[in-house]
User: Which sequence fits this backbone?
């Protein structure tokens, strides 16, 4: 799909609602310079491969409004600053956030996360925005 584009830094795809459901291509991990991965409302299914979310230069992941599922894999990514995964079906604990020490924004609304807010979240000193409404133990203020 992306053969020959090894210097790709950003991918932006939005509203590909008529596309066939497909998984996030594992080949994205070949783009070591990737900084922005934005694929919104595009019929993505499956989980996020750890080698994609762990790309060392990846600063922004936006996978809003897809049909992705499963737990977010624990990885160390010191570049990631913004994570937008609203309106999917991700599940499990949000302990994976501790692997993103420079995270500024986390948008986790409308998923199926469970457990408690981990104390490690307090160690994310750059975190300025944390959005979730569908997490056990957090009051819905709407």
Assistant:
């Amino acid at each position: 799909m992306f053969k020959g584009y090894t210097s790709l830094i950003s991918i932006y795809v939005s509203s590909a609602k008529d596309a066939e459901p497909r998984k996030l291509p594992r080949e994205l991990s070949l783009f070591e310079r990737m900084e922005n991965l934005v694929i919104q409302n595009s019929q993505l299914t499956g989980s996020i491969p750890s080698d994609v979310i762990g790309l060392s230069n990846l600063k922004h992941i936006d996978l809003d409004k897809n049909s992705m599922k499963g737990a977010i894999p624990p990885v160390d990514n010191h570049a990631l600053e913004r994570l937008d995964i609203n309106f999917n079906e991700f599940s499990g604990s949000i302990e994976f956030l501790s692997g993103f020490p420079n995270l500024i924004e986390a948008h986790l609304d409308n998923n199926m996360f469970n457990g408690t807010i981990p104390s490690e979240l307090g160690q994310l000193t750059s975190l300025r925005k944390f959005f979730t409404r569908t997490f056990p133990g957090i009051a819905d203020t709407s």
Notes: The radius of gyration is 15 Å. The chain has one domain: 10-131. The chain has a mean pLDDT of 88. The first strand starts at residue 10 and ends at 14.
